[in-house]
């Protein structure tokens, strides 16, 4: 028989159905049950697709807001406080893994309540001041609700990781209703992003168990990246004066 995973919508075989001696009776019953499971699986797959679509639309909404800020600033000042933007929508497999990792019940309602990084956007900026400017510009918009802020620039993680993390909610207007959907927003400098990318690849290569010597070097590199950000900000200030956001 088969069992249906309520998150992925897929089926995983847990036992082999043996041929039964009475094909006109019990075999037909089992065939009917298998058909019912397959139909249920298809319905769950449709529900999951509809569920994930909301988060895709939320990414579109926030991406548009960021694009407007970027284009407006570039038009007025001939440069941008945004280097590049990446988006990510968790796959069904990633959702399932995250739910199991945090002990979340495998239902869409539970996932919606307990997992807030299904939709993710990363904004990379030249300077630290740009990071906070983008946060201020987005959080000041009337339809953006800032749910949580984790400032790993002011207080880096123990491994040296630096970035500004926000959970924001934006309204997504569906055909029959509006729903507020959370989006995880990571805003960081080019130096922070480079360090985080290398650190991630190293931890992936070592399956999370990184030798102490490498961890020490990563920590030193994080401090070097922070020094670089500070130096570049100082140089910009010497050229343009004290700056608390993008230079106009």
UniProtKB/TrEMBL annotation:
Domain of life per record: Bacteria
Among InterPro entries, the record links this protein to:
GTP_Pyrophosphokinase (IPR052366), NT_sf (IPR043519), RelA_SpoT (IPR007685)
Q: Which Gene3D superfamilies match?
A: Beta Polymerase, domain 2 (3.30.460.10), Nucleotidyltransferase (1.10.287.860)
Its GO biological process annotations read: guanosine tetraphosphate metabolic process
Q: Which protein are we looking at?
A: Putative GTP pyrophosphokinase
Keywords recorded for this protein, A-Z: Kinase, Transferase
Domain RelA/SpoT, chain residue ranges per copy: 87-210
Name one molecular function that GO assigns to this entry. GTP diphosphokinase activity
Q: Which Pfam families match?
A: RelA_SpoT (PF04607)
Per the UniProt record, which EC number(s) apply here?
2.7.6.5
Identify the PANTHER family for this entry: GTP PYROPHOSPHOKINASE YJBM, GTP PYROPHOSPHOKINASE YWAC
User: What organism does the UniProt record list as the source?
Assistant: Nocardioides panzhihuensis
Enzyme class, top EC level, equals transferase
């Amino acid at each position: 028989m088969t069992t249906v995973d309520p998150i992925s919508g897929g089926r995983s075989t847990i036992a082999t159905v043996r041929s039964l001696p009475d094909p006109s009776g019990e075999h037909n019953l089992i065939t009917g049950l298998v058909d019912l499971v397959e139909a249920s699986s298809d319905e769950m797959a449709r529900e999951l697709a509809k569920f994930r679509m909301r988060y895709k639309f939320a990414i579109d909404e926030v991406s548009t807001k960021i694009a407007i800020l970027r284009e407006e600033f570039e038009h007025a000042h001939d440069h941008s406080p945004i280097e590049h933007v990446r988006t990510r929508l968790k796959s069904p497999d990633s959702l399932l893994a995250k739910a199991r990792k945090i002990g979340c019940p495998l239902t869409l309602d539970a996932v919606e309540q307990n997992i807030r990084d299904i939709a993710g956007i990363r904004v990379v900026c030249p300077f630290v001041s740009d990071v906070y400017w983008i946060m201020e510009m987005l959080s000041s918009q009337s339809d953006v609700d800032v749910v949580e802020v984790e400032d790993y620039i002011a207080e880096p993680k123990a491994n040296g990781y630096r970035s500004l993390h926000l959970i924001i909610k934006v309204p997504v207007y569906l055909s029959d209703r509006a729903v507020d959907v959370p989006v995880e927003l990571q805003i960081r400098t080019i130096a922070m992003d480079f360090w985080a990318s290398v650190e991630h690849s190293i931890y992936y290569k070592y399956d999370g168990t990184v030798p102490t010597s490498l961890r020490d070097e990563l920590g030193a590199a994080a401090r070097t990246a922070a020094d670089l950000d500070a130096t570049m900000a100082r140089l910009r200030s010497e050229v343009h004066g004290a700056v608390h956001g993008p230079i106009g």
